[in-house]
Every structure is written in C-alpha cells, then in structure tokens.
Amino acid sequence: MAIPATTIVFCAPALATGTSAGTTITNTATATYTNSVGQPVSVPSNKVDLKVDEVINVKVASADPGDVSAFSGGTNQILSFNITNTGNGSEAFRLAPVNAIGGDAFDPSTTSIVLDTNHNGVYDAGVDTVYAAGSNDPVLAADGSIRAFILSTIPGTATDGQRGQTDLTATAVTGTGPAGTVFTGVGDGGGDAVIGTSTGVGRDKGFYIVSAATVSFVKSATIADPFGGTRSVPGSVITYTLVATVSGSGALSNLAVTDPIPAATTYVVGSLTLQGAALTDATDSDAGEFSGTAIAARFGGVAAGQTRTVTFKTKIN
C-alpha cells in the first residue's frame, strides 16, 4: 500500500469488513491411532499459516440532505461528502472532483477540496486542511471515514432554479481494477492486495441549485384634501405607500427602503408604519425612523414570496 507524507485518519465503528488484513490464520491437524501394544498415540501435522490478504473497497456518499443552495457567481459554495474505507486494511485514497457531467444546467468550477481536519462535520475555513492530490491523500484504517468538502464557483450565467452537478471520486492509491485483481505483496500487513467489488473507486454526486431572489419596488400615493376630496391643494395630506415584493427563490439580506420627504411638503409626525404597525420617528430599536429629511425602514432578511409595505404621510405646505 502506498502511504503519502501526510495522513488523516478518522475511525468509525466497525462495519463488518471481515478479518483484518495481515492476520495470520494458524492450523495444525492431529492424527491418532492405537499402537501394537494397545497404547493411544497422537501425531501432530505440520503447522499451516495463512496470512489474510487486504481487500480494497471504498465508498463515497454525499453528506448533504439535498441540493445545496447557491447563488449565481458565488464562490466557495460547499458540497459535503463522506469517504469510507470499506475494506479490511489501511488504505490511502486519492480524491478528485468531476464537474463536466451531462444532464445538468451548468458546470460548477471546483476551486479546492478540503479535509475535515477537526472532524466536526462542517467546513471551517482556515482550520480544515486543503487537500493536495499525492501530498496529503487521506489514509483510512479499515472501517475508517473522513468528511471532505468540495468548494466551487458558480457561473455568473446560472439562473434561478438551475442545478449543477459535481461528483467526488476516491481512488485507492494501491491500485484499481475489476473485482479479484491482485497486487502481489503490497497489501496491508504484508500480504497481497485484492480489489473488491468497488473496483477500488468510490463516487457519489452532489448538486448545487441556484437561488436567485429579486425585488420589485412600487410607490403609490393617495390624497385627502381639506374639503373631503382628492385634490392637491395646500393643506392636503398625501399618503405614500411603498411596497417591496421579493420573488424568485431563496432570500434577500438587509433589505431596506428610504424615501426623501418631497419639497413643498412637511412630514406628518408619527405617520410611519410597517406592515400596518406604527413605527417611531426616532432612531431606536424598531425598524424605522424619520431623519428630518427622509423616512427609512429596514426589513432585514426577506424570503422569496414575501412582501413588505411601508406607509407615511406628508402635508402640502
């Protein structure tokens, strides 16, 4: 088995891969008989020692519960995979992404593969180890597992709802081939290495789905004049309504609106509302304020399909 300079090992509970590679199975037979004077005689055979060969098997499985939400042009978008040595001996595995796969809407561009160094199951930038093929190929004991993260850039041309596929492959460094292929004398424990049913290669797929939320913003006004009508005359009160509607998928962060008080009008104190609920004019803990020249309202994160409505009033001078 080829062992690289750096090894990262995480042992999971036994998965019944069978007797460990390198185990010696010893057997001695016995023949018995009764000699000519009626005495029992026991004759041992020679000892036969058999060394258990290494069976090379590996499994790769996506660790994501479903498609991973990403955004168009996004960098360091993360897919998670578990690599498990399902063979019976210690083995090094070389990792590689596959991006050019037919049937998806776009090809992600892999920027790096990262190994879960602290084994907490989540990507920790600056803590987990960036993988370099041939330099720090993970070495896994029998039944051992490690999580790996694929970091990708999403094309700027990808649109809302499109899916892009990236696969991760793990290939045994000792060798690959059809089941039963033998690599003489290089198995863990000094025996031979025999390729198992996985052919020495594990592979699974992961998907990004683009979530692109957009906002439409509409302003309208109604007028109430001092005479019970709707004319724009001095003393008329204008009610402005601002409606922000988020569409697409995903969510927008830090959504906010501002609106300067029009010239020739005066802000009506205490008229600012959000979703029909009054906001104070002061700069305080609520979501809105009147600065003296403009109103503002902050919505924070707003998911697609939701609407935020702000109203305020001014009086024509």
Question: Can you walk through the features of this model?
Answer:
The protein is mainly β and 317 residues long. The protein has strands at 24-34, 40-51, 54-56, 58-62, 68-70, 77-85, 91-98, 109-115, 129-130, 139-140, 145-153, 163-172, 182-183, 193-195, 201-210, 213-224, 237-248, 251-260, 265-267, 273-274, 277-278, 288-290, 294-303, 307-316. The strands form six sheets. Strands 16, 17, 19, 20, 21 and 24 form a six-stranded antiparallel β-sheet that branches. The chain has a five-stranded antiparallel β-sheet with strand order 4-6-11-8-9, with no helix packed on it. It is rod-shaped. The protein starts with 23 loop residues before the first strand and ends with a strand. The model is unreliable at 1-16 (pLDDT under 50).
